[in-house]
Amino acid sequence: MPQDAPFAVKKIILPVDMDHKEQSARALDAAAQLAKACDAKLYVMTSAHPLGDDIAEYPEHHKPEFEKYIKAAAERHDVAVESMFRHHESAEKMILEAAEETGADLIVMGTHDPKLTDHLFGSHASHIALHAPCSVMVVR
Of the residues 35, 81, 101, 109, which has the fewest C-beta atoms closer than 10 A? Predict the structure, then answer.
């Protein structure tokens, strides 16, 4: 993409919920294709609750599975991927902070079919789209 294009993409963030990583497959495909086409850096991020999922577990317990997922995705799509493993209590806050920190041009997010509560309170994707410092692509 030419540098003077109205929408140059150089940094893409893809948040992935490792408990529902299958739902992120289409978003990962889209983000990887965009990263290759735009020669952009792709950050794939996930998070763990700062206190772990239970009392006998610590957040880094999930990191090896995430690193394995990232490596497989990079190989499958033939694209460089930088992993971002974070601790959070709010997924939305974590994603918005990462976008600011990296200077992201685009956030690519997978989403599910809306439920009644999403119509009333909004989804993670809708919150990110409303508050992100960059463009947001939502993939169903």
Answer: 101
In this prediction, residue 73 carries a pLDDT of: 94
Q: Are 58 and 52 in contact (CB under 8 A)?
A: yes
List the structure tokens of 6.
Answer: 């109205």
Q: What is the pTM of this model?
A: 0.85
Where does residue 52 rank: exposed (0-12), middle (13-18), buried (19+ CB within 10 A)? middle
Determine the average pLDDT of the residues in 16-30: 89
Identify which has the larger pLDDT, 63 or 54.
Answer: 63
Structure tokens at 35: 């990263």
Q: Look at the chain and count its residues.
A: 140
Angle, alpha carbons 139-96-16 (nearest 5°) = 45
- 103 Rama sector, left if φ>0, alpha if ψ -120 to 50, beta otherwise: left
Q: How far apart are the C-alpha atoms of 32 and 49, rounded to whole Å?
A: 27
Query: Measured in whole angstroms, how far is the alpha carbon of residue 1 from the centre of its chain?
Result: 22
